[in-house]
Amino acid sequence: MRTKLLALADLAQKEQKEIYIVGGFVRDALRGIPSWDVDLVVTEEAEQFAKRAAWRMRGEYEMLDSQSQYSRIFLVASDGRPFSLDLTLVHGGKLEDDLKRRDFTVNAMAVSLNNYLHAPDWQESVIDPCGGKEDLHVGRLRLTTEECILRDPVRLFRSARFLLRLGLQFCPDTLAVLKKNAGQIRYAQKMKLSMELFQLLAQPYAADGMKILQDELDVLTHFFAPFARMNQVIVEGEAVFAHGLEVCRALEKILGENYCLTSELLHKLHAHLRQKVAGNRPRLSFLRLACILHDIGKVDGVQCERAKQSFNHEIAAEAYIGSLAQRLCFTQEEEMYLIRLICNHSRPLYTREVDLGANLRFFRQFGDTVPELVLLSMANLVARHGMDAMRCRELSCLLDDYFAGKYATLPEPVISAREIMEFFNLPPTRAIGKYLEAVYAAQLEGRVKNSGEALSLVSILLEARNKGGEDT
């Protein structure tokens, strides 16, 4: 990276341009932490300078915002690691005014590119109009001004991520300002808000960040009203929201070494969870969100028999997730993926190693989301009751079977749950799933070849179930 920065400084000197490194790179450099994304400001002609710099350094140029002359150059370091340079025009024409408009004081520092590259004591020449160096030294997260929140309410979300990422504490005045302006989150740009939330969800401390946003700042309640109800509804002695956070933390334990899964299986899981949904964001980020929201359907307080309660609240969750998906500008694929995880989060618990029909239907129905559903079920067990060795072994076997491709090629079922419910005038209950499992097992054995034969088998099962006095 240094070679590329030297080339950039050389070009700036030849063109008599003043160029400064700003923001997070300066902050991390002061802490002795390497960073691979560099933000720079140029005092004039930033767009044209960035284009010439990209050509000079053989990088790929991308214009991000023509109004602010905000450009990005994609480069590759000498060791093969990719990194980027973001260049923009100094806001307002003065560097100090530009820095004072930023979010937090620790991000409102700058240093001349030449000083950073050539001065051994470059830290002494850091331009710091808001006192960021001192705040960084004492471990304090402080807003530059209250107006910065009004200009960009997404900074309310960003505060939790920076607090945890940098290991800082809120300045009391800043905490008061953030809480006072929590309602401003309703006016944030949806796409920026979505990007910021998923930056938090990309981290193993996502649950702690969401707790800060809800319990300390009250931001989540203003962002999405059901979060308030999740904090109020108590199930088994625990608020729905608090339980979701514990499930998310349990997921991190399960995905860590030496908990309950083999190293080989963990390696496969991490590779799977790095895959991106709709080519956009990793599965793991969605899985963390699903952990937190998996019981959102319970906020309606649906009263029913315990055997049916879980099924009903999973169905109720779909409407809430659809509303959240709109707030976060999800693609249809992202929305359906999150709905699938949340509305089926307990499904793996109804499979058994000895129950071939249940396993076959589970793998056929959920395909490449099987690992996430199994992990979500495991995390839920760990958070609520703990997971015994037998249950861990059963669920681990599902993961082993998935990665071994044991059920990779399965035929389409000859009948659906909707067809069974409509033909026999039945409500949606767990029993429907049992009928589907029995039919599918019979289909694979060659005993059922079409929907008519499937309905005949279900009729026999219904008659036997009714004679036994069980609900359908």
From TrEMBL:
InterPro entries from the UniProt entry: HD/PDEase_dom, NT_sf, PolA_pol_head_dom, tRNA_CCA-adding_enzyme
A family per Pfam: PolyA_pol
Residues in Poly A polymerase head domain copies: 19-142
Gene3D superfamilies (alphabetical): Beta Polymerase, domain 2, cca-adding enzyme, domain 2
GO biological process: tRNA processing
CDD domains: HDc
A GO term, aspect molecular function: nucleotidyltransferase activity
Keyword rRNA processing: no
Record keywords, A-Z: Magnesium, Metal-binding, Nucleotide-binding, Nucleotidyltransferase, RNA-binding, Transferase, tRNA processing
Protein family membership: Belongs to the tRNA nucleotidyltransferase/poly(A) polymerase family.
Protein name: Polynucleotide adenylyltransferase region
Organism: Dethiobacter alkaliphilus AHT 1
